[in-house]
């Protein structure tokens, strides 16, 4: 494995594996979110929040997840800087070559947009629950009332709630775009692609991207407009 | 089937005296170009008219003019090998252009392909990648087993040939926003990895060629698919997946 | 005629090469390391030679004018490579391949060389397969073959329509291996300007670095010229734009004799000229004639309507189509050799049956093959060629017949070499299309690749040792010696002279003019009066060239106009030499058709009594008539018959 990480393909493998790891997190997060749709009292959701907040495995995974994010971002930055350096002079005419998707050429920007949202999201939830401990409490269990935190955000801030909703929906869409390219790309980089699987991976990635985009958008829309 | 005549065209072209000087765009007007002419014939006519005016003609690479030698390059109106698919610049015809149009021609913009003059770039870094391992180590002195002793399934031959069709023109790196040479390297690695003859050295080949590619300063592949779209031989990025596979499985054993 | 010793080995034909190899000298591995060999040109012959010699242990310096060795014009060969493997069990053999080649060449080649070519051909396929050349396969995994013009067996190996490319990339890969190991030093974007001769031996070359414009001196114990053919004398040809006869002409002017320059092959299946803006002709593979049927309208009025665009080919009923090749040559039909097919097309067009708006084209129709085998089969066989045709002409050949017309394609003539491929200058060799030896007056399809690789992989590695064994004591030639300095000075003066003309016309103007003269008078049909006119016109053109040429830009740095001017200066001299040769050869044979020598039904008529020789020309000075030497061809193994494909 000597010089593995300094090779271009090695670095891309790191991107690919960390990306797939983050995708797993997104799926877990999404399934918990969607619990709200099945129980509008928020009980089910709060149980899940409680579980996530107390389960030792999840506690262990928390820093791992953070490292996953950091690795993904750091390597994206290294690769992007190298790529910039590899093309010192840009073309005068904008490129008209058809690429697989707009996202494929703008992954770094998309990634940063998602990261910006993530910061907002952490401030609005994680910080309140885990650091300042200012989140509301469910009296029965003594655990955090994540449900109230969420519903307040999208219903109790007047016009600002609509803005939050828009931001969250936009983030869902950007994430979907990021994943539309990232998901199949991860497999391509690992080497799992060929003539037959190329179109299959595209289809899978498209479906998955829609699931993520719609999945993450449903909740804010539901809360803002239907609660 | 007489072809239409393009009465006037404006050719905006990159001029650069040599590698050490700064270049700039110049625009030249040319008249009465038949749409049946090839793009490079249009360039020939333009150069003839420049020489007549005492201007040094625009230097551009070209040779076979049949789309196979890979010598011609040119980034035309925002696309490597111009506005058509599955062709090289020399196969591009003036049917693709309108009367009165401004055609912008730039050299390949890849850090590892420095400009030599005007539209000519130095693509020797591609050769260097192949020197590092783009071959099968076999002596060229005969006494080899009969060719039919090596049986190759038809499908494998087909896939190897798809990859082997690479002409080394550089359009993949030139159309890649990252200046990545992955499709070029993948084509050679994949061609040899698909054949029984290439098995013995497949691991070292992938490692050596990727190491050389990185060393020469090509960018990293981000799977945008631009290379595949502009490749005159339509080489699929599925070959890049095979390169990744070859490289990773070789590296894991190191 | 002592200077023309072909050094053909004794013994029966089939034993000559084996006997020769057993007798010639060998250089020891330790001494090979001390010997430098210069190889000019990196096509199949040059590339294979460079790789093989480096593999043997010599120090090789390889030169090409392109930006990479991989771009040599061998790459453009489409159809395939012949080899006497008899994989199809159709009674092919080395002798049959030899016989077909000699007969196809109209008995104007050297028996021993041609036999050797056939003899080493099976090894070429083994070599290429071992290198990873992806030849076409049958479903069972064995190698596939196709048939080609002028033969009755299937012996052509191919890789889609890109056989030349795959073979060249094979040779290039073999070179890359040696470059990687430090045995070959590669010089790209370098043009050979002069050969350096010292004490009667070739010791090096002067090159011009096409990027910096500087002249460079390179020394070696032997110099191999493998720079391909000179078809671009005609301006329009299927050759690459850069293909030139410069190196061959420089060595001719320095004492290497030039043989049969008038033997030029005109390929029958090229895309017709579209107009006067054209710079290059595109070949459509001969393999298309396997399934395509060639025809013109039977009625002149149909042809005229087609030319005026009032009618389409598909409107002409079956009975009004003249499949003239099948009509005239029932046994070979559409697969007659190239020279025969080309002349037949010209005959029809001259008689007024030509199509296209110029009247200079015939149809090549795939409707019948599509009806018989189905669209999918034809697509699989020729898909990429059809695509190429459509991109160029904007006509879909699946729907509408292709239009084709003959074009200059290959030059059988070239630098005279003996059995060892050595020219009349010791230490100076010539390989591949650049030499004259194997194809006589006409080359069969898929044989050029065979010859290039045979010369490079299997002939020169042996024969060069015979000369170099006596050179092991010779130190590497000193590039500061008087001979090198003088050669460099002369080259400098030549470039200076080109620049100092400062006239009004571009290089292409003269090149086009030369092309017109050549096509008109030294083209598909030649006669005495025309050839004399050609010589006069070329001499006049030379004067104009040297008094009215204009080269803009600088001597230093890259100057593409200067590159072209240097080449065209040689083309003019070469064109003149071709005309002299064509004038001398008052017979029709292969690609050379003299209107004075035809049978009653218009077929070419050979004159074996007076012309069964190679015309070998010695240079005597600029503008002077060259001296003719003759290498009499002795045919001991084949009977000379009038070639018939009826």
UniProtKB/TrEMBL annotation, chain A:
Q: Where is the signal peptide?
A: none
Question: SUPFAM superfamilies this protein is in?
Answer: Fumarate reductase respiratory complex transmembrane subunits
- InterPro entries, from UniProt? Cytochrome_b-558 (IPR011138), SQR/QFR_C/D (IPR034804)
Keywords on record = Membrane, Transmembrane, Transmembrane helix
A cellular component annotation (GO) from this entry: membrane
- What transmembrane ranges does the database entry give? 12-38, 58-81, 107-127, 161-180, 201-223
CDD domains on file: SQR_TypeB_2_TM (cd03498)
Its domain of life reads: Bacteria
What is this protein's record name?
A: Succinate dehydrogenase subunit C
Automatic annotation (TrEMBL), chain B:
* Membrane spanning residue stretches: none
Q: Which GO terms describe its biological process?
A: respiratory electron transport chain; tricarboxylic acid cycle
**Keyword line:** 2Fe-2S, 4Fe-4S, Iron, Iron-sulfur, Metal-binding, Oxidoreductase
One Pfam family it belongs to:
Fer2_3
InterPro entries associated with the record = 2Fe-2S_ferredoxin-like_sf (IPR036010), 2Fe2S_fd_BS (IPR006058), 4Fe4S_Fe-S-bd (IPR017896), Beta-grasp_dom_sf (IPR012675), Helical_ferredxn (IPR009051), SDH/FRD_Iron-Sulfur (IPR050573), Succ_DH/fum_Rdtase_Fe-S (IPR004489), Succ_DH/fum_Rdtase_N (IPR025192)
Q: Which cofactor does it need?
A: [2Fe-2S] cluster; [3Fe-4S] cluster; [4Fe-4S] cluster
Q: Which part of the chain is the 4Fe-4S ferredoxin-type domain?
A: 157-187
Q: Which Gene3D superfamilies match?
A: 3.10.20.30, Alpha-helical ferredoxin
Q: Which GO-annotated molecular functions does the record name? A: 2 iron, 2 sulfur cluster binding; 4 iron, 4 sulfur cluster binding; electron transfer activity; metal ion binding; oxidoreductase activity
The family line of this record is: Belongs to the succinate dehydrogenase/fumarate reductase iron-sulfur protein family.
Q: What name does this protein carry?
A: Succinate dehydrogenase / fumarate reductase iron-sulfur subunit
Source organism of the structure: Balneicella halophila
Q: What is the lineage of its organism?
A: Bacteria, Pseudomonadati, Bacteroidota, Bacteroidia, Bacteroidales
TrEMBL record, chain C:
Cited InterPro entries:
FAD-dep_OxRdtase_2_FAD-bd, FAD/NAD-bd_sf, Fum_R/Succ_DH_flav-like_C_sf, Fum_Rdtase/Succ_DH_flav-like_C, SdhA/FrdA/AprA, Succ_DH/Fum_Rdt_flav_su, Succ_DH/fumarate_Rdtase_cat_sf
**Gene Ontology CC terms:** plasma membrane
Tell me one GO biological process term. Answer: anaerobic respiration
Which EC class does it fall in? oxidoreductase
Question: Topologically, how does it sit relative to the membrane?
Answer: Peripheral membrane protein
Q: What PANTHER family has UniProt attached to this entry?
A: SUCCINATE DEHYDROGENASE 2 FLAVOPROTEIN SUBUNIT (PTHR11632), SUCCINATE DEHYDROGENASE FLAVOPROTEIN SUBUNIT (PTHR11632:SF53)
Q: What is this protein called?
A: succinate dehydrogenase
The species this protein belongs to is Balneicella halophila
